[in-house]
TrEMBL record:
EC assignment: 1.1.1.22
Enzyme class: oxidoreductase
Alphabetical UniProt keywords: NAD, Oxidoreductase
Signal sequence region: none
Protein name: UDP-glucose 6-dehydrogenase
Coiled coil: none
Upper taxonomic lineage: Eukaryota, Viridiplantae, Streptophyta, Embryophyta, Tracheophyta
Gene3D superfamilies linked: Cytochrome c1, transmembrane anchor, C-terminal, NAD(P)-binding Rossmann-like Domain
Active site, UniProt feature: C271 (nucleophile)
Pathway connected to this protein: Nucleotide-sugar biosynthesis; UDP-alpha-D-glucuronate biosynthesis; UDP-alpha-D-glucuronate from UDP-alpha-D-glucose: step 1/1
Length: 468
């Protein structure tokens, strides 16, 4: 069997590498229109940082795993075509700010129809609005030249930073297909691929629409837990309760469970916000404004949490941060990844720069170029899609990027921890304190530091959801 995956990104690359590793009898080609991404996949410096990924790629590359820009050749030769292209939020036109932009998906589908000379199973790997398979089916069948296409939905549930673990031992694999003989046969074929390493009882088969919607629902539920605990964190600060103790007590209820209850400066990442907005749009289009508003609130609380953090910094520092130096520790949207898409660090840094602070940013996996790009890029505001706010060139000059936490904190008035990198737990905070301006402030957006220990050193500490 031959597999081709269109899109060599955070999902396509790791997913296909694991399929190649677990299925030595299958030839896997990962193709992309981005030549630089493909050449990075073929080099020693992979385009994404993901623990364990290098080893998997090294074991299979050039054996049964290939990365190529020859999209058409590999699509044409494949029996199974995964489509794992990006599906960002639309920034203009109908549904701007909410609807998913399916431009890349549609162009991939048209290309598949153009180059195919044999029957194919086309697998939606990207996260898409429910009913996308119907549109894709139309594009393929109306251009099929007699070729039979079966469409499956096989959403991906991996999380960045743990992608390889998640792919090796998924909680479940979800496959949706048509309930026709052809659809059922296609489901069995894809099931056969995963059955190389995933126990059969973990492979769930549903109809197409359930699979598509389950992906949006899962991300909405996960994000909703974070917004729920973040909303509680504000109440904890107002009342003297400690959010870690509250989460622990609440999570002990087996019906609720302990995971995904860490209060933070807000969730980031390329998907939670995008997928919830997409869900909101679908609800609105289906005449369900109450349901839409319910889910919209998850994002509103997330936005509130980020601005609350910035407001707390400014108000604690005598209502002015103008000219003050801040060490920003962590810029990625979570630990163990270099990904900065929708990272809360962008909003926090822009908030501080807006108040004329100076920033010295350190993240072990994010390059200076990436940080500068993120801070200068126009931020798309989902709630007010017309007003795009670029950062002024003078504000950008207030930013420096350094390669060491001690360098970042030297002479700083305040430290902001924005990503929960393990190394931030182990820093020598006495040394940091000694080299800072006094009073030395520390704002922990990820609850990684020992508040009591730092207060004993002399820091003024603000930690999300903890007594002040
Ligand atoms: P990404 O931006 O990292 O990768 C997408 C790749 O597709 C890019 O390299 C782009 O060049 C390529 N591409 C776009 N159009 C193409 C075309 N017509 N032909 C060939 N290549 C093309 O995106 P990602 O993070 O891998 O996400 C992909 C999809 O998976 C999205 O729908 C996302 O919602 C979903 N998803 C992402 C994650 C995650 O952790 N990042 C997890 C689960 C699901
Ligand atoms: C998330 C989901 O966890 C995956 O199942 C899904 O496949 C993926 O989105 C997707 O569709 O893209 P990811 O965004 O990579 O994965 O990472 P998460 O671990 O979910 O973290 C998302 C954000 O929430 C991060 O900023 C993280 O720091 C934050 N978070 C997470 C919290 O603030 N508190 C928590 O308790 C957990």
């Amino acid at each position: 069997m031959k597999i081709c995956c269109i899109g060599a990104g955070y999902v396509g690359g790791p997913t296909m590498a694991v399929i190649a590793l677990k299925c030595p009898d299958i030839q896997v080609a990962v193709v992309d229109i981005s030549a630089s991404r493909i050449s990075a996949w073929n080099s020693d410096q992979l385009p994404i940082f993901e623990p364990g990924l290098d080893e998997v790629v090294k074991q299979c590359r050039e054996k049964n795993l290939f990365f190529s820009t020859d999209v058409e050749k590999h699509v044409s030769a494949a029996d199974l075509v995964f489509v794992s292209v990006n599906t960002p939020t639309k920034t203009q036109g109908l549904g701007a700010g909410k609807a998913a932009d399916l431009t890349y998906w549609e162009s991939a589908a048209r290309m598949i129809a153009d180059v195919s000379k044999s029957d194919k199973i086309v697998v939606e790997k990207s996260t898409v609005p429910v009913k996308t398979a119907e549109a894709i089916e139309k594009i393929l069948t109306h251009n099929s030249k007699g070729i039979n296409f079966q469409i499956l939905s096989n959403p991906e549930f991996l999380a960045e930073g743990t992608a390889i673990e998640d792919l090796f031992a998924p909680d479940r694999v979800l496959i949706g297909g048509r309930e026709t003989p052809g659809g059922k046969k296609a489901i069995e074929t894809l099931k056969g691929v995963y059955a190389h390493w995933v126990p059969e009882e973990l492979i769930i088969c549903t109809n197409l629409w359930s699979a598509e919607l389950s992906k949006l629902a899962a991300n909405a539920f996960l994000a909703q837990r974070i917004s729920s605990v973040n909303a509680m964190s504000a109440l904890c600060e107002a009342t003297g309760a400690d959010v870690s103790q509250v989460s622990h007590a609440v999570g002990k209820d087996t019906r609720i469970g302990p995971k995904f209850l860490n209060a933070s400066v807000g969730f980031g990442g390329s998907c939670f916000q995008k997928d919830i907005l997409n869900l909101v749009y679908i609800c609105e289009c289906n005449g369900l404004p109450e349901v839409a508003n319910y889910w919209k609130q998850v994002i509103k609380v997330n936005d509130y949490q980020k601005s609350r953090f910035v407001n707390r910094i400014v108000s604690s520092m005598f209502n002015t941060v103008s000219g003050k130096k801040f060490a920003v520790l962590g810029f990625a949207f979570k630990k163990d990844t270099g990904d900065t898409r929708e990272t809360p660090a962008i909003d926090v840094c822009k908030g501080l720069l807006g108040d004329k602070a100076r920033l010295s940013i350190y993240d072990p996996q994010v390059s200076e170029d990436q940080i500068q790009r993120d801070l200068t890029m126009k931020k798309f505001d989902w709630d007010h899609p017309i007003h795009l706010q670029p950062l002024s060139p003078t504000a950008v000059k207030q930013v420096s990027v350094v390669w060491d936490a001690y360098e970042a904190t030297k002479d700083a008035h305040g430290v902001c921890i924005l990503t929960e990198w393990d190394e931030f737990k182990k820093l020598d905070y006495q040394k940091i304190y000694d080299n800072m301006q006094k009073p030395a402030f520390l704002f922990d957006g990820r609850n990684v530091v020992d508040v009591k220990k730092l207060r004993d050193i002399g820091f003024i500490v603000y930690s999300i959801g903890k007594p002040l």
